[in-house]
C-alpha cells in the first residue's frame, strides 16, 4: 500500500514537471514567434500611398512608430513630406504648413528656411491665412513683426489679405509695414500732399480712373478743376504715418486724435483705396472784406460737401465717415474722406444710408 502511494506521488510530481515544461516551451515559442513577426512586420503596410524602396528606407530611418502612425492616419502624401524629411528640425505635424509655404511663397527660399520659419512662427499664424500672409508681406516683414510685434498695439495680429477692396482694420488687427501692389500716381489731378516734401500722391491703379471721372464731373460745382477741390492724401506709407501721427500727438492727446486719425499700421490710407479731398481756398476779389471771403469759402465748401454726398457713389466712392454714423465708424464726421469700394457696393451704401461697417460684404 505504501509503495502504491509513493508511486502515485512520484507520478503527480512528474506530471507537474511536464506541465511546467510545456508552459515554458509555449511561452518560449510565443516569444520566438512574436520576435519573428515583429522582425518582419511592415509598419508602412497601411500607408495609402506608394513608396519606392529608397523612400521607404528614408521614412523608416527618420520617423518613429508614432510618427508613422500619424503619417498613415493623416494620409500625408509623399510629395508633401519627403522634400523636408532630411532637413534638420523637421516636424511631421508641420508638413502641411511646409508644403503650403513652398507652394505659395513669392520669394525663393531653401527648404531649411521653410522648416525653420514654420517651426518658429507657426503659433502666430492661422493655417487658412498662411497663403495670404505670404502673398502680401515679405519674409523680412513677417519675421520682424513676429519678433517685435506692433509698436502701437502690442496684441495686434496681421491682417492676412489687405489687398481685398473691402478690407477694414478691426481692433487688434494691423497692416504693419504692408505696401500694396499696383500703386500709381494721380498725375495731373489737383493735389498737394499732407506729407511734407511729397510732391506726388499715389492710389491703387483701379482707383485712378474713377477718381479722374469724379473730378471731371465735380467741375459742375464752380467750373474749376475737380470742383475746386484737391487731393491731399491717398496711399500713406507706414513711415509717413509714423511722422504724421507723432507730429499730431504733439498737439492733441491720443484719445482725441483717435476720433480723426489712426495709429500707424491701423489706417485705411495704407490700403491705397482711401483718399482725402480738401476744398481749395477761394481767391478774394479786389476790395472784398475778409468776412466775405470766409462766407464764400464756407458756402463753396458746403456745395462741395453736398455734391460729394450725392454723387461720389456714381464713381464707386463712399463717404467713409458719414454724419450720424460716428458710433459705428469710431470717427467724427469727415465729409471729404472718401473710400473706393466699387460702384455696386457704393450705390448700396448710398441708398441704405449706412457706413461701410454695416454693409453686406458677402
TrEMBL record:
Keyword Membrane: yes
Pfam families reported for this sequence: VanY
Membrane-spanning ranges: 20-37
Residues of the D-alanyl-D-alanine carboxypeptidase-like core domain: 202-343
Record flagged with keyword Nuclease: no
GO annotation, biological process: proteolysis
GO molecular function: carboxypeptidase activity
Domain of life: Bacteria
Keywords associated with the record: Carboxypeptidase, Hydrolase, Membrane, Protease, Transmembrane, Transmembrane helix
InterPro entries according to UniProt: DD-CPase-like, VanY-like_core_dom, VanY/YodJ_core_dom, Zn_M74/Hedgehog-like
Protein name: Serine-type D-Ala-D-Ala carboxypeptidase
